[in-house]
Amino acid sequence: MPRGGGAPVDVRIALGPEDVAAHHRVRREVFVGEQGIFSDDDLDERDDDAIKVVAEIDGVVVGAVRLYPLDEAGLWKGDRLAVVRGARTSRVGAALVRFAVATAGEMGGRRMLALIQRRNVAFFGHLGWSILGAESDFHGQTHQEMTIPLAGAQREMAPDGYVWALDG
């Protein structure tokens, strides 16, 4: 697995059965095998309709995230962001988050929510996300709800110091 600034990351919507299987494999490896958040798998009712995204390096899927609309007014949710251990220094997570934000915005989204593990809050903050509310428990782990405006939001409405997530 590449480290640091190695091979380029290819991020795309998982359309074919191989991509979808790889998406679920990465999530299972991280959330079941490594973190033990789920006992067998992390599949739920959202998987039927969610947009599944994969990140690939050198022909190997090493990351996944899913996103879906929560309402017709443009509120979206991104979740199940997972990057296999050996690819975590290759900027895969940032590429997945930016792709999810851009995709939801292109599909008419105005705001995205995500429930973030406590240790990843600063990472999301660096990508332009803001804390929303208090921490909460999710499957025995402390999480923080965070939010980001999507493509429908106006840049001039962003607070001072805001890092626009779509700016690379």
Task: Write out key terms for the chains shown.
33% strand, 168 residues, disordered C terminus, seven-stranded mixed beta sheet, alpha+beta, 7 strands, globular, Aminopeptidase
Describe the overall structure.
This protein is an alpha+beta fold. The protein has one domain: Aminopeptidase. It is 23% helix and 33% strand. The radius of gyration is 15 Å and the shape is globular. The protein has a seven-stranded mixed sheet with strand order 1-2-3-4-5-7-6, with helices on both faces.
Named CATH architecture: 3-Layer(aba) Sandwich
Q: Averaging pLDDT over every residue, what do you get? A: 86
Please count the beta strands (DSSP E, at least 2 residues each).
Answer: 7
- Please state the overall shape, judged from the principal axes of the Cα atoms: globular
Helices, by number, come to 3
Number of domains: 1
For the record, what is the CATH homologous superfamily label? Gcn5-related N-acetyltransferase (GNAT)
- State the major sheet: 7 strands, mixed
> What is the CATH class?
Alpha Beta
Give the DSSP E fraction (strand runs of 2 or more residues): 25-35%
Distance between the termini: 23 Å
Please state the CA-atom Rg, rounded to the nearest Å: 15 Å
- What's the oligomerization state? single chain
CATH topology: Aminopeptidase
- Main-sheet strand order equals 1-2-3-4-5-7-6
